[in-house]
Amino acid sequence: MPCLNLSTNVSLEGVDTSSILKEATSTVAKLIGKPEAYVMIVLKGSVPIAFGGTEQPAAYGELVSIGGLTPDVNKKLSAAISAILETKLSVPKSRFFLKFYDTKASSNLCLLIAFFLIV
């Protein structure tokens, strides 16, 4: 289950966050090769962020996935997600940082099983 956490110092008030969530979900699913039904996107706005010593629009993201991440995929994901943030939130591509975590299924299988048993 890929999960993309995005934080930005841009206010989300009056922003169509649904379109951002839908586009990010579709992009992550397509590039990682997982069904959209398993992709989670978390978007937080108005987070205090300084990038390069200024508080101009910026964003930080972390993407966690059990498999599917490679250097080539990561490069494509960075470009695609930064394009979404630039188009929808006016965050310049040069002021976005995305960190990747490719976890192993065996180490997280128990956590996923526990999650689904609780729900």
Automatic annotation (TrEMBL):
UniProt-recorded Gene Ontology molecular function terms: phenylpyruvate tautomerase activity
Gene3D superfamilies to which the protein is assigned, alphabetical: Macrophage Migration Inhibitory Factor
InterPro entries cross-referenced by the UniProt entry: Macrophage_inhib_fac, Tautomerase/MIF_sf
GO CC list: extracellular space
Pfam families in UniProt: MIF
Family, as annotated: Belongs to the MIF family.
UniProt name for this protein: Macrophage migration inhibitory factor like
